[in-house]
Design a protein that fits this description.
154 residues, 4 helices, binds fe (ii) ion, elongated
Length: 154
Amino acid sequence: MTQTYPSLEWNNDLVLDLNFMDDTHREFVDLLAQVTEVTDEALLPLWDSVIAHTQAHFDREDRWMEQTQFGPGSCHSREHSQMLQIMREVAKRGAAGNLAMVRQMNHELGIWFNTHAQGMDAGLAEHLRAVEFDPVTGAFTQPAEADVSVGGCG
Ligand SMILES: [Fe+2]
Ligand SMILES: [Fe+2]
């Protein structure tokens, strides 16, 4: 029998008060919930969708950090790339037959994201709000703070 793991539930602590980040995060949490429900037959294609969504999500945040010269961006981006690497490794294990590992990773991804969103993403959201960043044009109207220390690698 397939072991099931609970996935992250959307909660108020995840709200960053920045629509274009919150919308993506809600979609991500929805995808994790779908993974807990899906049959074994449909698990790997869905996991690929989670990876694709996460890649696009992280790429956008990485780009915004570059565009606005966000100081702690390199630590944040490194966390993104490390997580994507793990997710791809788990997809390979899944393709080799270890579906339980995919389901367990989905659970752990939710735990990781809960921390990531409230730490690094919250710091980024605060910065993007402060510089009045427009994600459509990439423009921002306020100068970046020189000494932003939120979300360091520490
Ligand atoms: Fe994010
Ligand atoms: Fe992030």
